[in-house]
Every structure is written in C-alpha cells, then in structure tokens.
Request: fold
Amino acid sequence: MIRRPFPTEWDTSQLPNHRRSYLESGLCFEEITRRASSEMQITKVAVKPYDAPVRGEPKDARQVIFVICVDNETCDLLYNAPDGLRGRYWQTPDYGHEATKYLIRSLIPRLLSFAHQDPPPIIKPAAPMDMDDIDASLKATSAKIWPRERDDSLKIGCSPISNLRYRVGFAIKRRHLSISACGARRR
Reply:
C-alpha cells in the first residue's frame, strides 16, 4: 500500500518558503500527473541509436526521445513532492516504476500526435521508427522520463537549464524533461 513519506522522512525545512508551500500541499501523484499532462509542451522528438543495450537486447536497437516542457513548479512537484517520482521510488522501486509507467502512459496520446504531425528526425545510424514502433516503445518497460539539464547527445535544440539543486538566485521559467523509449529493432 502506498504511504507518502512523513514530514520527518521527507524534510523540506531547508527549502525556501515558496517551494515548501507547494511541495507540502499534499498533491497526490495522479494530480501532479494530470497537471503535467495538461500544461506540457512538446518541443522536440528524435530517433537515435540506443546507447547501451543490455544483454539480450539487439545491438541495433533504437530509441525515440521526446523533449517536453512543463512549468518549473510542476517539474519540482513531479520529482520532489513527497508523492512525486522520487517519493514513489523512496517507498519502493516497484512503486517508482509503476509511477513512471503511469506518467508516460498518460502522455502517450499527445506524444504520438506530435510525432505524427512532426515526424522525428533520425540521428544516424538509427533506422526510422513508424508510429507503431514509437507506440510500442513508449509502452515498453524500458521507457523512462528524466529532467534534462542540457542538450548534449540529441543535438535537437534544447536550451540549458538549471540543475535540480535550485541554486539561489538562478531562476528559470520552464523545465525540460526527456522521455526515452527503447526496444524497437531496425528493420
């Protein structure tokens, strides 16, 4: 059974008051997910070779990566609220994996629509992915979402943003998140 961390287990006392206010607001993960889904802007999509296939995965696997933006506060809630992704992983890795799957599945219709309207460029030597490949990859157990601090290997144009430590005096308007899904083989 999911139990949010107690305040003594999820200490936000050292954070600025405005952050503590919304992080301690008691939003459940499903509410945070709805918020992220309703405000997200998809900025980029690309298909690239899968960086590190594990044993048993094809060496020619590829992955689709979406870069999305949400409000800074929403991103903070998504990762740092007691019932956010980190809070779910803190409870158990299984809860964390389930929360990740729930979040990505809630975004799939909009991600697929974006990829259909703006087909992803191929970063060589990856083979193209059709819509069925992208859908299957987003639903695979290997799909994940993470905060993106800079545009490094994708080369698809994402501005650098602050890290998750929220350095004092450094303000940003948007957070970039990446969704990566892998598993489809080359044809």
